[in-house]
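Exercise 3.2. Students should predict the tertiary structure of the chain below and write it as structure tokens, then compare their answer with the key that follows.

Predict this chain's 3D structure.
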Amino acid sequence: MRQIFAKRFLSGTALLLLVSFGGSVLPSPLMSSVVMAAEPAKPMVEGFDIDDVDTISGAYLAARTANTDRDFSMAVALYQKALRFEPQDLEIRESLMLSLLMAGRFEEGAKFATELRKDQAVERVTAIVRGLDAIKSKNYRAAEKILAYKGPNDLDRLTNALLTAWAKMGAGRGKEALSDLDKLKGPAWYGIFKNYNSGVMAAAIGDQARARSYLSNVITDREGGATAPDTFLRSVMALATLEAKAGNKRQALDALAAGDEVLNNYPPFKAMRERVEKGEDIKPQVATANEGAASVLFSIGGALNRQGAQDTVALYLQLSRALDPDSADALIMLGGIAEGNKQNDLAISLYKQVPADSPMRRISEMQLGLALAEAGKVEESKAHLKSLIASDPQDIRSYLAYGSVLSDAKDYAEMAANYDKAAEIIGPAPGKNQWPVFFQRGIAYERLKKWDQAEPNFRKALELNPQQPQVLNYLGYSWVDMNRNLQEGLDMIKKAVELKPDDGYIVDSLGWAYYRLGRFDDAVEELERAVQLKAGDATINDHLGDAYWRVGRKLEATFQWRQVLAFKPEPELITAVQEKLEKGLPDLPATSAADATPPAAPAPSAPAQTTAPAQPAPPATPPAAPAEPPAPGAETPKAPTTTPAPAPAEIPAKPPADSPVQPQAPEPNKPMDKAPEPAPAPAPATPPASDQPEKKS
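Answer key:
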């Protein structure tokens, strides 16, 4: 989970900029449950040999299993085998085409797209694929014909119109393409996509004035930035590139400064600023029809990048890479999706492919460090991230990434020292967006049982960002757990719940705080809601079991505790729950529960950290609001595991093993064998409850 967040923070600007702008992203259009390509393929079952599959049903079912596991190379091989039994089977051919595309095998997938062009079940996919194939082959007239769209779906209409414009641009009709885009009518969220594509297209044909106007419109369009954060960031860099190439150094730096207001200290902005100041030549983001068409798929994929849509996003990115295989944005976003799918080796491979001269290179290096740790290569990860810090000690995100790995390794002494150095670099006047450094520093000292050093850091984080639900939750729970500032602590947790009412971990903290205060009926109410919000979490079920026991619902309590064991938690929790199942909880003292003073215990378990992006990424990551990206490992702290103890139960200091650092991981997507029904047009962006993606501890 930590990596998932880090990934998005660094690579996928969508979350970063959504944090700043607030709002929602587009609904999934082409496919609602395609799965992300994973290579190299791994056997679905140890000892599985594709040569042993000798029936069509066996090959087809095994292929679907591989698809579900996001093992697309294996899925392709199995669908191909099934097709040998039934060469004309439509469903197998559809599934094979999609698996080929998801595996990054565009040319082979395009052949099936041509064969299936009249198949309405996958028509929306085949039209795009055939159009891209024509553009790639410089057969621009054919591309225009294939991409002609008169259907009702707004997103499909926009996608096809943008791709058609780039086909005309490739045919030398750039002015006509710009005129077509000016005439394109649609929902308000069309604006950012039209302006960005028109801007880079105008720049490509040498019309600097129009390019400047279009790109400036993007930078001032905050609602559009919330819809497509990655496109916002790319527009900032495109405008800076335009001005730099025109010799307007001051205007180029001003464009980057405007981007800094939304996403301060964004590594690609910093890298470009250095090049502008040195007068170095900067390559345009988009200079050809191929790159333009690729950017269309990337921008829309980035806008769709959200929980539950990763597979759809991966399809757009793979199609984008078919025309621009070295796109750093697409590589980083695909890497982030791979991390979310626990395909760490694939993620590492993708991050390493980012070109060395790309402004996105530093982001990819941070994500690489996090992916190495997630893959179990902790020492290699530490060495890699320490080298990043050494190469640029002023880059605070490097400290956040390194601190995330140290947190997972429970090396709290080194974690504290790391954040001490980061705080020293920041100086006496930290900015609002630097709250994650102090939050994570506080966690490190709390884990070291140095509350006198932890509390000031939590307070500083809250001072910098008073509406940050993770900080409110962590500090409030810590106070309640230690029997200090009880009312203020409870009020903080309640405020955190108001800010993130759908965060199961924060709701769990409120329920557990009620439990610690002897308010067992209130605890049951909140903990039941927490279990619904975050099903399958051992700690939350354990808490609910304890609360049920205290209100006399002992049969339900034992059921919850047995559920905990089914989730295979850490050994300490297993031991505690087994004892509860054998003996129950101790009786309450003679005094009323409400009057009972809970024994002091360690504060809630430390959430894992992540780095800001990742972006963070995919295609490129979307932009956020004027707030700095969330800290790499910052997450929603979760109430610690309970041990059998007299009323209110004690909470051990050991943090949960899966402490994440970013938005909660999305549920796995179902594999897609056919294109879904058209999705409705996206709703206007709405401001977020807070300026950081949700996280769990």
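Discussion points: Residues 1-25, 32-43, 592-697 have pLDDT under 50 and may be disordered. DSSP finds 33 helices and no strands in the chain.
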